[in-house]
Specification:
With about 350 residues, the chain is mainly α. It is about 75% helix and about 0% strand. The chain is built from 16 helices and no strands. The longest helix has 28 residues.
Amino acid sequence: MKRFSTISLVVAFCAAAAMPSIARAQSSLEGLLKKTSLNREEKATLEAEVKNKVKQLVDAPNAQALGDRRDFLLKLTRTSGMTPAGLAALADAAADPLQYVAAAEVFDAAYAATLVLVELKHASAVKPMVAVLASEFPAVRYLAARGLKGAMPVLQASAADLTAALDGLAQRGAKERDPIVLRAIYDAIDLHAAGVNTKYGDACAAALAAVFRGRQDALIAGSRDESKDLRGIAASSACYEKAAEDGRIQLAAAMAGLLDHCVNRYFDPDTSTEARPGLADIAAEQEKALRQFIKASGVKEPGKTVAAVLKSQSADLTKQEADARAVLEEIRKILRGDPWKLP
């Protein structure tokens, strides 16, 4: 029969002794969260307890302790019967401390804190989640982007909160280089897929355009990862249809810029023969979106397509380039007219 070491017995005894006090603390806080209103003293109690638990995420001596502390906080966010007043008090108490830990250089604690932030699903968590999009850890940034996506249906009740979330996603998305995180950011911006009120179409279009502009800068600088934007391109048509004039102009200009770049790279002498079919496919998606923009604005689209020229596999690359640029100029000519008036 195996014998426990003295240290193991002590650890087990301490853990068992701590369980009742932890349960009491959990029960006490859950009771506050179920109240229809909290007074100043109750809010102060909640804030002190939550701040202490969040701080303990960083101080956790091992993975088990970290998991227990994370689960304590997660259980609070899932309190059965929690009132709007309780959720607001919890979010106000937890948001800033969680942001501080989530932005830290310790991955496990940062990830745990972001998990709790995501579960809050409250407007007070928007600014912290946007800040966490700047984390050095891709997994943490991804989780924050997913959290913002999940919060969109809740945020639509407030134009200021939803716009703040989109602005933050746009700013970080323009700088994001990790393909998985960038896709999550595009997912979060795609309000149509989330079933969010169509009145935010302009904000959605402006956010997508901002990310596209940042991505174009990265592509021009030599990143050569055009396929990262396919998710955003797929979301663009629905955003455009629901956007007002300013949002439509921004989105059309940004998409035209991406298409210009893709055509330029296709015909770049340094582009390999093997890379060209993939670029042709991406250009086809960009052009498809632009043509949908044009149709949505009630303007007739040109007959020939850039995609058909690029996929023709012509042996005469010089003629193929001339034909592609001629079609591209037709599209540009349309965009220089009403309602876009692009340069």
